[in-house]
Amino acid sequence: MKGFFKPVGFYLLVVLIVLYAVFPFYYAIVTSLKTGSELFRVDYFPFSWNWGNYLSVFQGHPFGQNILNSVLVALAVVALSLLLGVTAAFALGRVRFKGRSLLLMTILGVSMFPQVAVLSGMFELIRAMGLYNNLLGLVFTYQIFILPFTVWILTTFMRGLPRELEEAAIMDGAGPWVIITRVFLPLLWPALVTTGLLAFIQAWNEFLFALTFTLTDTQRTVPVAIALISGSSQYELPWGNIMAASVMVTVPIVVLVLIFQRRIISGLTAGAVKG
Predict the structure, then answer these.
(1) pLDDT confidence of residue 264
(2) Which residue from 4, 113, 169, 220 has the least number of CB within 10 angstroms?
(3) Boundary-marking domain end, from 50, 75, 90
(4) Who contacts 245 (Cβ-Cβ below 8 Å, separation ≥6)?
(5) In whole angstroms, what is the distance from residue 236 CA to residue 79 CA?
(6) How far is C-alpha 213 from the geometric centre of its chain's CA atoms?
């Protein structure tokens, strides 16, 4: 009897965790298919499929431009963070110098500051650089909380690579850049996919900096655009449009995670196993 309840309890726990994680997104999909008074009725299954909310999101709002802005910013953030992260990880993970551990802890400590604490300083810096209401300003500011995480993950992975590979490349006359690009980079793909995808998700979902450093509708990213969706009057909150927009920007992220889930797991666990 005891052996029977063990697997039953385990699978019941798994079902509860899945329901807890998936239900909010499922209910958002159901709500996005409702219109009018149906929005105020609690239904767990869509009895009618109305795609009007998905069409109305693009009417009167530059939502397509907002999606493009988010894609451009997220891709630029990923490219820049990986370029800086790989080179920094090589120095912190393979080169021995005094104060290396202190420097690594300082880099990680920077990411622990809340966004609100650095918001005013970043605003003055962005305005002085002439990047206010510019997508380049978002790419620059996002590095504050994305780059430290990228450097930390890649440094942990870089330390786990065999030192014999580096020594053999040095004996063949290879310099640091050749070692990074020709020797280590092919071995870093699991870590690069992991950090790149996590950086993309963070840049895609970031709200506070995007709200503060952009002014016009055509320069805003999707989280800010969704938050600013308004109804025909000040007393109306268009839940259907908001849910439809949220579903459209969430589905691509879910698909990317499902495609690269094996590489994500291997990238996160690669630096934890020695031997």
Answers:
(1) 67
(2) 4
(3) 50
(4) 57, 63, 222, 225, 226, 229
(5) 41
(6) 19
Q: What residue type is 162 in one-letter code?
A: P
CATH code, domain carrying 74:
1.10.3720.10
pTM (whole model) above 0.70: yes
Closest C-alpha among 204, 212, 202, 192 to residue 260: 192
Q: Please give the tally of structural domains in the chain.
A: 2
Q: What is the CA radius of gyration of the chain?
A: 23
Are residue 185 and residue 144 in the same domain, yes or no?
yes
For residue 202, which phi and psi values (nearest 5 degrees)? -65, -45
Q: Residues 48-68: pLDDT tens digits? A: 777 888 888 888 788 999 999
Same domain, 136 and 27: no
Q: Which two tokens stand for residue 113?
A: 């500051």
Six-digit token string for 168: 């053999």
Q: Give the three-state DSSP class for 172.
A: coil
Give 246 or 173, the one with higher predicted confidence: 246
Whether 156 and 268 have beta carbons less than 8 Å apart is answered as no
Q: Which among 184, 222, 207 has a CA at the least distance from the CA of 82? A: 184
